[in-house]
Amino acid sequence: MIDQLEAAGFPPLWELPLDQARAGGALFGAMDQPPPVASVEDRVIPGPAGDLPVRIYTPDAAGPRPVFTYFHGGGFVFCSIESHDGTCRRLANATGAVVVSVEYRLAPECPFPAATDDCYAATVWSHEHAEELGADAGQLAIAGDSAGGNLAAVVAQMARDRGGPPIAFQALIYPVIDGACDTPSYTENAEGYFLERQAMQWFWDQYLGPDGKCDDPLASPNRASDLSGLPPAIVITAEYDPLRDEGEAYARALEAAGVPVTMRRYDGMIHGFVSMPMLFPEADEAMEGIGSALHAAFATR
């Protein structure tokens, strides 16, 4: 895959006009072959800045089911519920949960904390409307990949600190955890492995804006002073990913704070592999792992 991308000669996304860069980011979703689910519904729910589009996936599983609120990746700048359609279908089928995929506002037009506010509002809505969705409000979960993993980790902290909704599980897929971009994996995997260090620094610049600071725990969730009382988690990382070390460090910090954690590094994989099952069979294995961790977390409640 990397050889093919290099042969195609695509310029770095951060050197392109924003609309062209976003079109390039959407190509990876277009390459997918989304599996069927029992039903898919596009809706608009109230958001903190107006209408907030969501896409709801209902699997062919007996209810009441868990309900996942899902936040797509894309560096806070790219991608959409459309690009992650296949990912959310697989998540619904692997977990037997209703999945509510959120079209949160993107940077740089809507910088931090717009995305966190949207994702928290959608999680509140999912909890309040769980019965309507054929789901169990007591089995509320959140998930996200990359930038969406950051948003999931942040929403878990927001829900704890704001007294709800009662999130029972979080799935963080190669999450963006810290804006410093200074871990050893950023050096080891700085170039040549799909997601590059310079791209992540550019994403953070777009997300935080000229006056933003990455030490805010609602931007960098590992900067929170207290990680106790957060929901059980699964943290998935990839060996050849600049984000590997910060995701694993966050998993260890959660564990040290008394949070039950399943941590799984996928050796040989690059960032984004879970959304590319047509290239990497490990993607399906990761989804099955999320399902197993979800059901294990609910079984111990």
How many helix segments?
A: 9
CATH topology title: Rossmann fold
State the separation between the terminal residues, measured CA to CA: 42 Å
Number of strands: 8
Strand order of the largest sheet: 1-2-4-3-5-6-7-8
Structural class, please? alpha/beta
The assigned CATH architecture is 3-Layer(aba) Sandwich
Fraction of residues in helices?
Answer: 25-40%
Count of separate structural domains? 1
Please outline the major beta sheet: 8 strands, mixed
Specify the CATH homologous superfamily.
Answer: Alpha/Beta hydrolase fold, catalytic domain
Strand content: 15-25%
C-alpha geometry: globular
What is the alpha-carbon Rg in Å?
18 Å
Low-confidence stretches: none
Mean pLDDT score: 94
CATH C-level class: Alpha Beta
How would you portray this structure in words?
This protein has a single domain (2-299), classed as Rossmann fold (3-Layer(aba) Sandwich), CATH 3.40.50. The protein is built from nine helices and eight strands. It has helices at 2-8, 18-30, 85-95, 114-128, 147-161, 184-188, 197-208, 244-256, 282-299, and strands at residues 39-47, 50-58, 65-71, 98-102, 135-145, 167-173, 233-240, 261-270. An eight-stranded mixed β-sheet has the order 1-2-4-3-5-6-7-8, sandwiched between helices. Strand 7 (233-240), helix 8 and strand 8 form a beta-alpha-beta unit. Helix 4 packs across helix 5 (147-161). The longest helix has 18 residues, at 282-299. The chain is globular, with a radius of gyration of 18 Å. The model has no long low-confidence stretch (mean pLDDT 94).
